[in-house]
Design goal:
This protein has 14 helices and no strands. Helix 3 crosses helix 14, helix 4 crosses helix 8 and helix 11 runs antiparallel to helix 14. The longest helix is centred in the last third of the chain and has 36 residues. The protein starts with a helix and ends with a helix.
Length: 274
């Protein structure tokens, strides 16, 4: 009886958590189908309206949505691939290899995680200006091609999941560093890489401040910067802005569903092998 009550409470808590998590996305979709006047109405309307096509059409009329979408997709994909490569390489090295200054380098790496990202905006802009990268995608991709969190995350995962005996066996078979990394470590690190890839992609996709500072050509605007231009100086059509926001969120929801399924399957496969 006690076990049954515990199960009921557990499922009740999970259902409440699910509703709380999903409701903001549902409310976003509802407001995207309403007019601005209906959004401000009281009591609020909790069901879908009929203005979605009209709102989306105005979004396409006011900004180059598909151009900004492709720009954002390009930047996010390139950033994610570079982060996955360099962070996994560094994390694997910190976890399984000994070299001079390893401890202090890792401490320095952790220290960089404590500095607010906003502090680096001005120095980063000056560096990009010196390189002549202001207004280019290189300024969005190259500075973020490795980050402290990703290295720390992969290091912690690799330290527990990659057996040292397996690496020793690879060395006996004549494997060098990169072959150990690619053929031994990467297959084991897939769950960690799935999470890091999704985390990096979402962060790059939603990045607003740095692209706003560094980009000066409307043809290269990312989605978040382009959507911000929908805000009027005196009057803002919030129904149109919310419809554009919904269109920008949909790819992230699809990515999350795909990556979460892959993440769970990778963990299950690792559990079966072990």
């Amino acid at each position: 009886m006690v076990k049954r009550k515990s199960s009921i409470l557990l499922y009740f808590g999970l259902i409440v958590g699910l509703i709380v998590s999903i409701f903001p996305f549902y409310w976003l979709a509802v407001m995207a189908t309403r007019t601005t006047a209906e959004i401000y109405s009281f009591p609020p309307k909790f069901w879908f309206g009929t203005q979605f096509i009209s709102n989306v059409t105005r979004v396409f009329e006011n900004i180059d949505f598909f151009g900004a979408f492709l720009n954002t997709l390009f930047v996010a994909c390139c950033s994610t691939l570079l982060v996955l490569f360099f962070d996994s390489l560094a994390g694997f090295t910190f976890a399984k290899f000994k070299f001079p200054g390893k401890k202090w380098l890792f401490v320095l790496l952790l220290a960089t995680m404590m500095a607010p990202a906003q502090l680096s905006l001005v120095p980063s802009f000056v560096i990009m200006a010196k390189f002549g990268w202001v207004g280019s995608f290189k300024a969005l991709i190259i500075p973020g091609m490795a980050n402290a969190f990703g290295i720390f995350w992969i290091r912690q995962y690799a330290e527990e999941s990659v057996p040292s005996e397996l690496l020793d066996a690879g060395r006996i078979d004549g494997c060098g560093f990169f072959r150990l990394y690619w053929n031994v470590a990467i297959p084991i690190l897939r769950p960690a890489l799935s999470f890091l890839g999704a985390f990096t992609f979402i962060g790059s996709w939603n990045d607003y401040l740095w692209p706003l500072i560094i980009l000066n050509d409307e043809r290269k605007f990312t989605l978040q910067v382009a959507l911000s231009s929908l805000n009027g100086i005196y009057v803002t059509d919030y129904a149109m802005v919310i419809a554009g926001t919904l269109l920008a969120v949909i790819p992230l929801i699809i990515l999350f569903l795909f990556v979460s399924k892959q993440f769970i399957s990778d963990i299950a496969a690792g559990a079966i092998k072990s």
